[in-house]
From TrEMBL, chain A:
Domain of life: Bacteria
Transmembrane domains' residue ranges: 12-31, 37-61, 73-97, 109-131
Keywords from the UniProt entry: Membrane, Transmembrane, Transmembrane helix
Stated name of the protein: Uncharacterized protein
Record keyword Transmembrane helix present: yes
UniProtKB/TrEMBL annotation, chain B:
Protein name: FHA domain-containing protein
SMART domains tied to this protein: FHA
InterPro entries attached to this UniProt entry: FAD/NAD-bd_sf (IPR036188), FHA_dom (IPR000253), SMAD_FHA_dom_sf (IPR008984)
Signal sequence, start to end: none
Domain of life: Bacteria
PROSITE patterns: FHA_DOMAIN
Phylogenetic placement of the source organism: Bacteria, Bacillati, Cyanobacteriota, Cyanophyceae, Thermostichales
Domain FHA: 24-84
Length: 150, 674
C-alpha cells in the first residue's frame, strides 16, 4: 500500500484504537507481566500521539524515494525505531500517567511487540478485506473521495 | 530550411517527429510565443513542464545560413549535454537538445525535400495548439493531427474488425442519428436484446469491471459482455507470448494486483509461497515473502507468473458466471437511445452466415485496450519497400524465427527501444547465446539517459536502462502521487505524467547482470543517434544508417535482424469504434488525445438521463489516474465506477464495506458465487 499522510494517520489511529485495544486487553487484565494496569492503554495512546508526528517525518522521507512507496521492511524499521524511542523516554523521564517507578521495560517490550505485530498483520489483511477502497486511497478508510467531480 | 524534432512522448511512448519551418519558437505558454520574427511568420509549439519557460527558445536561420538556437529561458537548455542559458549557439543536425524533461533530436531538412513534405503532412502542426482554453481539453473537431490508422500500424484483433463485405449495410442508416428510438430498432427486424449492464470488449478491463459489479451485488442475468475473445486474457496472453513471456515466466505486475481478487489479498506472493511451501521448497517460499516485504530496496520486486494469473482468472470467471454473460461479436457502433439508455450494434457474423444484432443497456463500460501496435516509421518503410517481414520485426509480433536463426547461425540483432520488451528480448538473446555464443546485440538509443527527477527523487539509471518497478511510480497507485494527479487540471496532469512516465524497465538482477556482462565481453553495445534510413544490403540484410549525436557522425549497423521494442498505439482515434463514438458525440479528449473521463471514470458527455457510461484502461491515459493499463489500474477504474454506480443507485449495486465486504471475501475464498 502506498500511503498518503492523512492515510497514515487514519490507519494508525484506527488500528491502534481497535486491534491495538484488543491486543492490550490481556495485559490490562494482568494475564502477563507485573499485573493489570491502565498504563498499557496510556502506552497505546502515546504510540498513537507520537506516531502521528513520526508519520510527518516518514512522509517527508518518502519524497526521496522515486516510488513514494513504503515497503513492509521500512514499516518494520519504523516500528522498531518508535519502540526504542518511546521505551527510552518512558524509562528515563516517564510521561503523564506513566511514572517511571511504575514502568517495567520488559512488560513494555512484550506489550509493544505484541500490539505491533497484530497491527502490522491487520494492515496487510484486515484493512484490505474490510475496506476495499482503503489501499486505493493511500490508507484513508474514512470519508469520501477527495476532489470527486461529476 | 525546416527543422525536424524527434522525441519519444513521455506518456504514450509513441515517436513524435513533427517538422516546423524556421523560424520556430517553443515554450510552455502559446500566448507568450511570437507570431512574427523579423518579418517572417513563426511556427510555434507548446511543451508542458514547469521546468520549461513560457517562451523557452527560438530557432532561426542566420544571414550566413547557419541555424541558431537562442535560449530565452530561466532554466536554460542543454545541447549535446552542454548547458546554455539566455545565449545563442549554432545548431547542427543530429544534435540533442534537452529542455525540461524533453530530450529532442534535431534534424535539419531542406524545404524542398519530398520526404519531409510527406512527414509534415502526416504530422500537421503540434497537438498542444488545439487545446480549448477554458477546459484544457481537446474537441475532436479541432484536432488536426487525427489520422485514420496509418499504414505503419499493425492492428491486432480490435473489438471492431473491419468486415468490408457487410460494413456497408450494418449498422443500418438509422445509426446516423445521435439518438435512436427503440421502435426504429425493432423495425429493422434484427434481434434486440436488453440488459442493465453492458461491458464492451471482453479483455482484462471488462473482466475486472464485471467482477467488481458482480461482487457489489449485480446478478449475471443483468450483465452482458460483448467480445470476440473466449477468455478475458486472450489478447494479453498473445502479446506476452509474442514478446517472449511464455506462461511460466514472470510478468511486470505487483503481488497484490490480482484481477481475480478485488481485495488484493492474498496476493500472488503469498499464494506462490504457499504452493512452494507445500511442495517442500521452503527456502523458495520464504524468498517470495522476503521479496514482497523488502522490495524494491533490498530485493528485486516480486512479480507473478503469467500462467498463475490466468489460472486464477479462470477460477474467478467460473465463479462469477463469465461465460453466461459473454456474447460473441464485433462491436460496430454505440448510440444513445431516446429512452435514456444506449444501444450497441454488433456483428456475430461467422464464416458462412451473417448475424447482426443490437444490445440495449442502461449502464455501459468501455474497455477496448490498445487498438494497435505500430512499427517505427523507418522500419515500416523498409518493410513496404522490400516486402521483407522476417528481418525487421516488432517485439509484440510473433518472431521466434529470430532466435531459432541466431541459435543455429549466430549473428547480430539491433534492438530499438529500452522498455520492458527490450529487456525480455535481451533475456531471450542471453539464453540463445548459451547455445551459440556468436550472437551480438547492438542497442540503439536516441540519447544518453540521465534519469527523470521529481521533487527530491531521481529515477535510477544503469547503462542507459531506466528502472522503475512498474510502468509508473508506486506512489501513483494509491498514495500521494495518486492524490496529486487526481487533484490536478488536465494540463497539470500532463506535466506530472511527463515526469513520472517514459520508457522504463524493471530492475531485475539477472537482466542487469546480462547487460553488464555483455558490455564487458563486447557482445552488447549501445549506440546513440537517430536513424536516417534502413535499407537492404547486397547480402539481403537490413542496414541501419544512423546520424550520431555528435557533429553529424554517420554510423552504419549491419544486422541480421532489427527488433522494434517501442510501444503500443493507445490513440483512441485509431480505433474505428471509438473514432465513431468520439466524432458522433463530439466527446472531449484530454491533452493526450485520450478519452476525457471524470474522476469516477465516467464519460460525462455520454450521459443519457439515467444512463451512464464509463471507460477504463489505456484509452483513458492522461486522465485522473496514471497506471490505467495495469492490473491494479483496471481494478482502480472498476472500483471508482462501481462506487459511482452505487451513488446513482444503479439496480443491484450495494455498498461494499465492512462486514459485507468480509462476507464477499469469504465467498471468494470458498469459491462460492458472489
Amino acid at each position: 500500500m502506498t500511503p498518503t499522510l492523512i492515510g497514515r494517520w487514519q490507519t494508525r489511529v484506527f488500528l491502534l484504537a481497535t486491534i491495538g485495544g484488543l491486543a492490550t486487553l490481556p495485559f490490562y487484565f494482568g494475564l502477563t507481566g507485573h499485573g493489570g494496569s491502565l498504563i498499557y492503554f496510556w502506552v497505546l495512546f502515546y504510540v498513537g500521539l507520537i506516531g502521528c508526528g513520526w508519520d510527518v517525518l516518514y512522509n517527508f522521507l518518502m519524497g526521496w524515494m522515486w516510488d513514494h512507496d513504503w515497503p513492509g521492511f521500512l514499516q518494520l524499521l519504523a516500528g522498531i525505531w518508535e519502540g526504542l524511542f518511546l521505551g527510552t523516554v518512558l524509562t528515563i523521564t516517564g510521561l503523564p500517567y506513566i511514572p517511571t517507578q511504575r514502568f517495567y521495560l520488559g512488560d513494555f517490550i512484550l506489550h509493544y511487540s505484541f500490539v505491533w505485530v497484530c497491527i502490522y498483520l491487520s494492515s496487510w489483511v484486515v484493512m484490505r478485506i474490510l475496506f476495499p477502497r482503503w489501499r486505493f486511497r493511500g490508507g484513508e478508510w474514512l470519508g469520501k473521495w477527495p476532489y470527486s467531480r461529476g | 530550411m525546416q527543422i525536424q524534432l524527434s522525441w519519444e512522448d513521455p506518456i504514450t511512448e509513441e515517436q513524435q517527429e513533427p517538422i516546423f519551418p524556421l523560424p520556430f519558437a517553443f515554450g510552455r505558454d502559446l500566448t507568450q510565443l511570437p507570431n512574427e520574427w523579423q518579418g517572417k511568420e513563426v511556427s510555434r509549439a507548446v511543451f508542458t513542464s514547469q521546468e520549461i519557460s513560457r517562451y523557452h527558445a527560438l530557432i532561426y536561420r542566420s544571414e550566413d545560413g547557419q541555424v541558431i538556437y537562442e535560449d530565452r529561458s530561466a532554466n536554460g537548455s542543454r545541447i549535446n549535454g552542454e548547458k546554455i542559458r539566455q545565449a545563442r549557439r549554432v545548431l547542427q543536425g543530429g544534435e540533442v537538445v534537452q529542455f525540461g524533461p524533453y530530450s529532442v533530436t534535431v534534424s535539419l531538412v531542406p524545404s524542398g525535400d519530398p520526404s519531409a513534405t510527406l512527414l509534415t503532412s502526416a504530422h500537421r502542426g503540434t497537438r498542444t495548439l488545439l487545446l480549448e482554453p477554458p477546459t484544457d481539453l481537446i474537441r475532436p473537431n479541432t484536432r488536426t493531427d487525427v489520422d485514420i490508422p496509418p499504414s505503419s500500424t499493425i492492428v491486432f484483433a480490435p473489438e471492431q474488425s473491419p468486415d468490408s463485405r457487410s460494413a456497408s449495410e450494418f449498422p443500418p442508416p438509422l445509426f446516423q442519428a445521435e439518438q435512436i428510438s427503440l421502435s426504429a430498432l425493432q423495425a429493422t427486424g434484427l434481434p434486440v436484446e436488453e440488459a442493465e449492464y453492458l461491458a464492451l470488449g471482453g479483455g482484462m478491463g471488462s473482466f475486472v469491471w464485471v467482477d467488481t459489479i458482480r461482487i457489489h451485488g449485480v446478478k449475471p442475468e443483468q450483465i452482458r459482455v460483448i467480445s470476440i475473445a473466449k477468455k478475458p486474457y486472450e489478447r494479453y496472453d498473445r502479446l506476452l507470448n509474442n514478446c517472449q513471456i511464455p506462461r511460466w515466466k514472470r510478468i511486470r505486475s505487483g503481488s497484490d494486483s490480482c484481477p481475480d481478487n478485488i481485495w488484493g489479498w492474498p496476493g500472488y506472493a503469498l499464494r506462490d509461497a504457499r504452493r512452494s511451501f507445500f511442495s517442500g521448497r521452503v527456502l523458495e517460499a520464504l524468498g517470495f515473502l522476503w521479496q514482497v516485504f523488502s522490495e524494491p530496496l533490498l530485493a528485486d520486486t516480486y512479480t507473478p507468473r503469467a500462467g498463475d494469473v490466468f489460472a486464477s482468472m479462470d477460477r474467478e470467471a467460473a465463479r462469477i458466471g463469465w461465460d453466461q454473460m459473454l456474447r460473441y461479436g464485433h462491436i460496430r457502433a454505440i448510440r444513445k437511445t431516446e429512452d435514456g439508455r444506449y444501444v450497441v450494434a454488433y456483428s456475430a457474423t461467422r464464416p458462412g452466415y451473417t448475424d447482426h444484432r443490437f444490445m440495449v443497456a442502461k449502464y455501459l463500460h468501455l474497455a477496448t485496450g490498445y487498438p494497435a501496435i505500430k512499427l517505427l516509421n523507418d522500419l515500416q518503410e523498409f518493410r513496404e519497400r522490400t516486402g521483407d517481414l522476417k528481418s525487421v520485426v516488432h517485439g509484440y509480433e510473433p518472431h521466434p524465427h529470430v532466435y531459432e536463426y541466431l541459435e543455429k547461425q549466430g549473428g547480430t540483432i539491433l534492438i530499438r527501444g529500452f522498455g520492458i520488451v527490450a529487456s525480455q528480448v535481451m533475456d531471450r538473446v542471453y539464453e540463445a547465446r548459451k547455445i551459440n555464443p556468436r550472437i551480438s546485440v547492438v542497442h540503439l538509443s536516441r540519447s544518453p539517459k540521465s534519469g527523470n527527477r521529481f521533487g527530491r527523487a531521481k529515477r535510477e539509471v544503469d547503462n542507459h536502462w531506466e528502472f522503475q518497478p512498474y510502468n509508473w511510480p508506486k506512489g501513483t497507485w494509491g498514495g500521494d502521487l495518486r492524490a496529486k494527479l487526481e487533484a490536478a487540471t488536465p494540463l497539470e496532469r500532463r506535466e506530472l505524467l511527463e515526469v513520472w512516465g517514459g520508457t522504463t524497465t524493471a530492475s531485475r538482477r539477472k537482466w542487469r547482470r546480462a547487460v553488464r556482462q555483455g558490455l564487458r565481453e563486447g557482445w552488447y553495445s549501445i549506440v546513440f543517434g537517430k536513424v536516417e534510413s534502413v535499407v537492404l544490403s547486397d547480402k539481403g540484410k537490413p542496414v541501419t544508417y544512423i546520424q550520431g549525436t555528435h557533429n553529424n557522425t554517420q554510423m552504419k549497423v549491419e544486422a541480421d535482424f532489427v527488433i522494434d521494442c517501442t510501444g503500443l498505439v493507445s490513440d483512441p482515434m485509431t480505433n474505428p469504434l471509438l473514432n465513431d463514438l468520439i466524432t458522433r458525440y463530439n466527446l472531449p479528449l484530454n491533452p493526450h488525445g485520450r478519452l476525457h473521463v471524470s474522476n469516477d471514470f465516467e464519460l460525462v458527455e455520454m450521459r443519457n438521463r439515467d444512463g451512464r457510461m464509463y471507460a477504463a484502461g489505456i484509452i483513458t491515459l492522461g486522465g485522473p489516474y496514471a497506471p490505467v493499463d495495469t492490473f491494479l489500474g483496471l481494478q482502480y477504474c472498476a472500483h471508482r465506477s462501481a462506487e459511482h454506480l452505487v451513488r446513482v443507485r444503479a439496480p443491484g449495486m450495494k455498498t461494499l464495506e465492512g462486514i459485507g465486504s468480509l462476507w464477499q471475501w469469504c465467498k471468494w475464498a470458498l469459491n462460492l458465487r458472489p
